[in-house]
Specification:
Length: about 375
């Protein structure tokens, strides 16, 4: 078993690390404080080819693989979760179904520009009364011979005020199961509502979106009627793998800051890192972080080799998110009063890490899924 990154993977990691150190980290605090959507940075991420990493070359991507995708995501999240989260949504859920099911018009008008970061796509699944229970969705699409008419209310839609299009999960009046539709943001009847004021990941704007009798051409159905759940399952493992990569990225930032602080903060005549209590915290953090990384790259390898990975994807998302929250909490304790101060980024890492407990499926739901995979 080879644990060494190949030359291309190393280059991708170094490219995104350099971008994050030079372009992202210097403005990460400002993005968070101003709750400012990082539109320009997102476009620059597009120029680096991030959005096309998981797509084939004949579609305009680089087919770099999920391991490479994770390496880039970790670096982006190390710099700013407010940038990394919308990049993940854009590259995976936002445009996947356009690639899989879109015709030439859809690919030319929406998918290709989104792949380059020139257009932004949002995914609309969650509703006020439907989160983990997707079968409780109430958004309804009427089916006619020459068009579809979609109505409903969505919430927690990432990038909604900046989106050029949405992929919307909906019921239809002729089928019990979910279907997926492309909805241009400028369609008549689309209304972006208030943005949700969040604890963390504050530059990644999430909003409510209402659809009021939105008329859509027949080719804007992405896949067949009733195939929405099946389509989601296709990429569910990747969603969880990438959520784990987000968690590892923000945990890495907290860990690095805490170790640096422990080496330079002097109390009682020596750096606090020389005290046993701090050494034990640092060791626990390092073990959690390395364990999460190994489980992540093993699961990413399963994805790259098209092997069964639903159980492992649930495990890595569960473990990495819990580890990230533990690491960010320990980092805050190492910095003590400075970990509580808004001028230090550790408090931002702690707030941002909370998102990973929810995104990709709540950890409580994942435990049930893992147990089911065990035959229980």
């Amino acid at each position: 078993m080879d644990f060494e990154l190949n030359d291309i993977q190393k280059e991708i990691q170094q490219t995104f690390r350099k971008f994050v150190n030079e372009k992202v980290k210097p403005v990460a605090a400002e993005i968070d404080e101003k709750k400012e959507y990082p539109l320009q940075l997102l476009k620059e991420v597009g120029k680096l080819g991030f959005f096309g990493m998981r797509y084939p070359e004949d579609a305009g991507g680089s087919d770099a693989g999920i391991i490479s995708y994770c390496l880039a995501m970790i670096e982006l999240a190390r710099g700013s979760m407010s940038l990394a989260a919308p990049c993940m949504m854009q590259s995976l859920m936002g445009i996947y179904f356009l690639h899989r099911d879109g015709d030439e018009e859809i690919r030319d008008k929406y998918f290709t520009p989104a792949l380059e970061g020139k257009k932004i796509g949002g995914i609309c699944m969650t509703e006020p009364d439907a989160g983990s229970d997707l079968m409780a969705l109430k958004t309804m699409t009427k089916v006619y011979d020459d068009r579809y008419v979609l109505s409903g209310q969505k919430t927690w839609v990432t990038s909604a005020p900046y989106a050029d299009f949405f992929t919307v999960f909906s019921r239809t009046d002729n089928h019990d199961k979910l279907s997926i539709f492309l909805v241009p943001a400028d369609s008549k009847g689309v209304h972006v509502g208030k943005s949700i004021d969040k604890l963390g990941v504050r530059g990644s704007i999430t909003s409510e979106v209402a659809f009021d009798e939105v008329e859509l051409p027949l080719n804007y159905l992405l896949g067949g009627i009733g195939e929405g759940t099946k389509g989601l399952i296709e990429i569910l493992a990747e969603i969880r793998v990438m959520t784990a990569a987000l968690a590892i990225g923000v945990a890495t930032a907290a860990y690095e800051d805490a170790i640096e602080y422990a080496k330079t903060r002097v109390q009682f005549g020596k750096p606090i890192g020389k005290f046993q209590a701090i050494k034990m915290k640092a060791a626990d953090m390092a073990v959690q972080l390395e364990t999460a990384k190994h489980l992540l790259f093993y699961t990413a390898w399963l994805c790259d080799n098209d092997l069964p990975r639903q159980k492992e994807a649930a495990m890595v998302k569960l473990y990495a998110s819990e580890a990230a929250n533990s690491i960010c909490d320990e980092a805050s304790r190492i910095l003590a009063s400075y970990g509580y101060a808004m001028e230090y980024p550790v408090q931002r890492y702690w707030r941002d890490a909370r998102f990973t407990l929810i995104g990709g499926g709540t950890n409580e739901i994942l435990k049930i899924n893992i147990a089911r995979e065990l035959g229980l």
